[in-house]
Write a structure and sequence with these properties.
The protein is mainly α. It has one domain. 88% of the residues lie in helices and 0% in strands. Keywords: Membrane, Transmembrane, Transmembrane helix. The chain crosses the membrane at residues 20-40, 46-69.
Length: 83
Amino acid sequence: MEIGSQAHKELLLKSIVKVAVKTASIGLFIGGLLLIPAIFRENDFSTGLAYAGSAIIFGSLGYSLWIAYGKYRRLIKPFKAHN
């Protein structure tokens, strides 16, 4: 496989998406675990955990998008500029 070929770009893009999905899914899992106590018992502690879980979910989604965009800009855009 030649560097800069269409197959190479597809593999790079696939790996970028894979890393972003893994990062987001870890955040969804941890955030979901923190949301569970608020379902069963409503008190200040479980509400605080629910807010923390929501923050972790949104933070991990934002972080995964930021990482994916940075990798895309650094790895794939230079190949598009040369073609």
